[in-house]
Amino acid sequence: MGNNNILYDERALKKELTQRLRNIIKISAKKDSPKKAIGNQIEKRQDNIDNLLIDKVQQILDAIKKQRWFYIKDKPKVIFDKTTAFLWPNIEYWDFSKKTFANAKPSKNYKLEGFIGWNLPWANDVRIVVEYIKPKFNGNFWINSNSTNYAHFNISLNNTVYTSSSNSRSFIYYSKVLSPTKNPDNFYNNTKADNKNYSDDEKAKMVLDIFVKNKFKVIFDKEGITDLYNKLFFDKDELIKQIQEIEDQIADLPKPGDTIVDFIDFKELIKGFDLEIINNSKLQYCKSLLKWFNLLISKLDDFKTQYQELLVSADNYEKRIFESCTEGDHQLIHQRTKYLSEHLNFGMESLNSDLLSFKE
After folding, report:
1. Which residue has the higher pLDDT, 321 or 270?
2. How many CA atoms within 13 Å lie on the side-chain side of 205?
3. CATH 3.30.70 is the classification of domain 71-219
4. What is the pLDDT confidence band of residue 291, given thresholds at 50, 70 and 90?
5. What is the pLDDT of residues 65-77, one digit of tens each?
6. Domain ranges of the chain
7. Cα–chain-centroid distance for residue 2?
8. Sheet containing strand 86-89, strands side by side
9. Strand ordering across the sheet containing 150-154
10. In the predicted model, is pLDDT for residue 323 greater than 80?
11. CB 46, CB 338: distance < 8 Å
12. Across 83-87, 126-130, 172-176, 231-235, least confident range
């Protein structure tokens, strides 16, 4: 009778042990592997990145179409005119002091907010911006002219006045340094409303390209667009930092081809077993075997916990890409996706085959 009980217990233990093995194997199956998990997460988002990017950039382009003057957050003393791509002084800071014509002309080394290329404007340039200057200044200031006489512009009359006198008058500068066209006047002609060679989106994109190229933190009138613009074009450093943190965590985990057995201290585990008793009893052997596999499962769980935080970080990382991706980030995304795919193996595939072989 005792032998039957032993046989029954042994079969029950073997059945439970088999189920435990199946659980371990299931854990290491492809659908649960970290490589597959992260790969799926990134791939699902990857399919939407293009559409997301187009949608977000379109919001910025729409805002550019509706706004002419742009302040630059870290360069408050200048303002950017979208219609010409010229820089003008921010009239809230400009005092319109008076000088003779000769003294009013800026030197070649003159800089304002780090920008060069400042000069007295021409009459045509002033006419384009009269509505910007008029609220702050409604008098006369020096302008450039091809005339042999001195020229100044009368804001209230919106006209040029010529004089033989160079007595002190007010002045204002402008700079064409940001113009992307060889002839700065071409930008104004290209982006005029009646120019049918370019769509409204293409004209707005010309302006956006200037902002991005010069890394301008421009301020948009429409609520939420400034934050969106900064997120798309100025959060890359933080994105790179997050990627590096993930790579550092990957570096601390097993390299492809390693197995979990390299991370288990078997000498420490074996201390909990009385080998003499195990060798003299089939029942004790089965119970100890079950205990042994329970310990392995526990270690496997510990091992999974190690990369669980990595999975969360990776998920946050790909979500950040989803939210902040720019056209220039596409290559980065593909490179990082490949990196994750190659390194997030964790030896689970080897564990799967090892456990199957041991079971047999």
Report:
1. 270
2. 9
3. no
4. confident
5. 999 999 999 999 9
6. 2-55+235-359, 71-219
7. 70
8. 118-119, 174-175, 86-89, 75-81, 69-72, 218-219
9. 98-99, 169-170, 140-143, 150-154, 159-163
10. no
11. no
12. 231-235
- Closest Cα to residue 160, out of 133, 125, 195, 112? 125
238 falls in which pLDDT band (50, 70, 90)? low
Residue 336 burial (CB < 10 Å; 0-12/13-18/19+)? buried
Predicted pLDDT of residue 29: 45
What is residue 347's predicted lDDT score, i.e. its pLDDT?
Answer: 46
Q: Which of 192, 182, 123, 208 is nearest to 157 (CA)?
A: 123
Note the Cα 151 to chain centre separation in Å: 50
**67 vs 288: CA distance, rounded Å:** 76
The Cα 93–Cα 187 span in angstroms is 27
Q: Which two tokens stand for residue 199?
A: 């769509």
CA end-to-end span of the chain, whole Å? 30
Who wins on pLDDT, 334 or 279? 279
